Amino acid sequence: MLVTVTVNGVERSADVEPRLLLVHLLREVLGLTGTNVGCDTTSCGACTVHLDGQSVKSCTVLAVQADGSSVTTIEGMAHDGEMHPMQQAFMENHGLQCGYCTPGMVMAASALISEVEAEGRTLDEAAVREGLEGNLCRCTGYQNIVSAVLACARGELGDGTGVQVRDRQEVPA
Amino acid sequence: MTATEPRTDEATKVTGTRLLRKEDPALLTGEGRYTDDLQIPGALHMSVVRSPFAHARITSIDTADALASPGVVAVYTGADLADLWADQMPMAWQVTEDMHNPPHFPVTQDTARYVGDAVAVVLAESSVAARDAVDLVDVDYDPLPAVVDLEAALTDEVVIHESAGTNKAYTWDLEIDEAAVAKAFDEAAHTVTGHFVQQRLLPMPMEPRAVACVPEPFGGGLTLYSATQIPHILKVMTAVTLGMSEADIRVVAPSVGGGFGSKLEVYAEEMLCTALAHKLRRPVRWLEERSENAQATIHGRGQIQEIDLAADADGKVTGVRVRLLADMGAYLQLITPGIPLLGSFLYCGVYDIPAFSFTCTGVFTTMTPTDAYRGAGRPEATYAIERGMDLLAREVGVDPAEIRRRNYITHDQFPYTAVTGLEYDSGNHESAAQIALDMAGYDDLRAEQAKRREEGGTRHLGIGMSSYFEMCGLAPSRVLASLNYSAGGWESATVRMMPTGKVQVVSGATPHGQGHETSWSMIVADKLGVSPDDVEVLHSDTNTSPHGMDTYGSRSLPVGGVAVALACDQVIDKAKQIAAHQMEASADDLELSGGVFTVRGSPDKEMPMAAVAFEAFTAHDLPDGVEPNLTAQVTYDPPNFSWPFGTHVCAVEVDEETGAVEVRDYVAVDDCGTQINPMIVEGQVHGGIVQGLAQALFEEAVYDADGNLQAGSLAEYLVPAAPDVPPMRLGHSVTPSPTNSLGVKGVGEAGTIGAASTVINAVVDALSHKGVTEMRMPASPLHVWEALQAARGGDGEGLTAEGATDTAGADRDAPSDSLQADQGGAS
Ligand code: FES
Ligand code: FES
């Protein structure tokens, strides 16, 4: 079946098997391997991406369900050589160790902040912990992840770390 | 060519600062390259057919349907592959002469010995085709009885390996002075005995295992990519197992998504991908599914412990006796039998104990093999002695903090030769404990507890503490030799100052999240006076880093990091000779500060290291006998282990009605010697604590009596999520290790070693006024309820093993509901 998805701002089409999952469309067909797979039970959150602005576990969405939608992956978060504030917050707060859960965490956390802002709520520590319940991390004990998300929500970021990153808006062919 | 600007200000010293990690930008933007991210054109995908029975004879395998399935290229049984192996799967720790190391091949031939044992493999053009075909391989099994109970296994009613003739793998004694132990118990004013179960745990790194083996386009060589902690060891073991030349195998560990010991291993799938890529001269890759990770990646812990403490009237411990049964699982993996031995040295904990005996029996069962899991033997040991100290405090009638105070090896006793013969290099236990108790507000907590007990109620406050030693820096090679371990404990480092003044470091330590690149850069930056940004660290590829002993046992910094520092020292020595020659001064008069050599007494003369590097590169004017280039290679074998230590204290609330345990506060004071990057230290401690806390409260690899793993996925196995764990408060003291020039000790396992006993001591303490003295880990609502029942004189009967399984595997949102269901069933 033909699916057309706008991924990180670029429209992509592919002919896929109906059973293909969105995560495999991203990783295997489109070559965007930043999104990771950690489980086969929708439990770990490593595969979290934004689908039309909402955070979803991409191992739980069929590629065909995403037809006509817009998807943002971790590769689409940095812009103009600057990390997204959530990425910067993770770096500054040591919110990652092995980095395997990290793309999913960053996607879930950034969606959480938008959601909470849209509802006019403020994020406190308990709300961050609840909000990230679907994303497992085995390395960090979560403490620094929670600190990172709170720092980002409160705008408490350093003056940029001087870290330049490669702009990955262009989907590799 | 221009030299990079040297850092000339001593105030810019980077070690000891919270420098942000160099590793992070790539990992944060999706540029991390984990093994399964590698694009390998033309690769065949492997899938493994696994036994659904814990123990069964394989009577026939029909592969015809699978072979006919679209995209399938080959299907192999154990018999088909038998010729590929020059040796059986590697096992590196023959702990006793008579230890049984039964035949173990990547695919079993006639008998399956655990659920998940490989019985055939499929190769196909896509992963989907390979997985589909697995279901079409028709295997006939003749089921045999499973053995999941260690005591039952020791009766040998069902023997798992006919070649061994028994399920006893070995019995190992740490023989010291049996008479002294007997005397201590004869003369004791107090004795206590603890029976503890170290439940099996699933290591569960977030990245499942992944392997890809690619034949080189020319010659017979192969590159094996694997999500491994041990590329160097894996390379040697692959050569031995496949009977290949080491020169033909290159092992690369790309980004690795956590290991916790479970990737300190040589796995069947690594051997299979390599052997099949070699045989077919095509790339072969394999990616583990999470449920396979639960079944076929090693498990941790799995011990039954009995510990006796003898003490005088004051509660001063005079003797400790330990007997262990250690669950090996169905086969011996790389260091399976040695894990309890590593722990044996820590059963005396941080206490001044004059008499000790230890005996351990390794037992085969029809379950997944066990091996190293975060702490590897040491969390188990610490748990036993720290639970034992609480039992003793109660027996003697003093506070748990006081019983420890009376027994600590005191600061002035270091260096201290333990009864086990090991020398503890440094420690300051009283001080670390006091900091932790103060931070936790221990006295106030006790007062609150007394008040609440007076008031009654069903929500109980418990306070737990635990003091620990960690045996890091594995290890002096001679000590490993004395334990029959078949490798050394050194680490290798090369430091090269390049003509531009940038520095390249090659390290044999292989990180999987610990931030080695950042820490090594910091060490080099301060030694050579360059910016950490100008240091490049190469690792995890046996072509660029041919010598290494890899990363496990908190050895990277105290062995690998020290090797880097020593190599820098050698680079400096050489640079000094060149600089002295160029400045026409005596090398003895040269001083290096901030990357610049100056001459004592001649303030106008100076030469930056980078300029020396350039001179060493052009080699136009070097002193006689000095070779070009600033390069040094060091292989460092530590003279001793390093001994980090600390005390953890926590406060828990236990709800008697629901059995729910909530950790209200967690304080950890760890002393890992000099800290290179305190931010990384804290991250390691946080993660470690949560793994220990998870053993205490959530995790268990439950098997049913037929040997089926009941918690085989992340849906059923409770890896804690963010709401499940408390914020942690960390303190530290700094007692530099006198063993190495950096004063570092290691910290990766500290949190895990301290946490389980701290939490369980608190849970038992919460219910102690109800008569509870024991708590089976994990302290799930069911186990809390059982402990309360036992204390009330009920025995919790009517609860089946399945009941336990249900709770252990319950939805994390509804522990109290499932408990109520169980209670309903029991009453
Ligand atoms: S891979 Fe999607 S939730 Fe685990
Ligand atoms: S950083 Fe390793 S799993 Fe989260």
Automatic annotation (TrEMBL), chain A:
The keyword Metal-binding applies. The keyword Oxidoreductase applies. Residues 1-77 form the 2Fe-2S ferredoxin-type domain. Keywords: 2Fe-2S, Iron, Iron-sulfur, Metal-binding, Oxidoreductase. Pathway: Alkaloid degradation; nicotine degradation. GO terms for molecular function: 2 iron, 2 sulfur cluster binding; metal ion binding; oxidoreductase activity. This is (2Fe-2S)-binding protein. The lineage of its organism: Bacteria, Bacillati, Actinomycetota, Acidimicrobiia, Acidimicrobiales.
Automatic annotation (TrEMBL), chain B:
Coiled coil: none annotated. SUPFAM superfamilies: CO dehydrogenase molybdoprotein N-domain-like, Molybdenum cofactor-binding domain. Residues 29-145 form the Aldehyde oxidase/xanthine dehydrogenase a/b hammerhead domain. Residues 793-827 are annotated as: Disordered. One of its GO terms (molecular function) is oxidoreductase activity. SMART domains: Ald_Xan_dh_C (SM01008). The keyword Oxidoreductase applies. Keywords: Molybdenum, Oxidoreductase. Gene3D superfamilies: Aldehyde oxidase/xanthine dehydrogenase, a/b hammerhead (3.90.1170.50), Aldehyde oxidase/xanthine dehydrogenase, molybdopterin binding domain (3.30.365.10). Pfam families: Ald_Xan_dh_C, MoCoBD_1, MoCoBD_2. Residues 798-808 have a biased composition (Low complexity). The keyword Membrane does not apply. InterPro entries: Ald_Oxase/Xan_DH_a/b, Ald_Oxase/Xan_DH_a/b_sf, Ald_Oxase/xanthine_DH-like, AldOxase/xan_DH_MoCoBD1, AldOxase/xan_DH_MoCoBD2, AldOxase/xan_DH_Mopterin-bd_sf. PANTHER family: ALDEHYDE OXIDASE 1-RELATED, XANTHINE DEHYDROGENASE. This is Molybdopterin-dependent oxidoreductase.
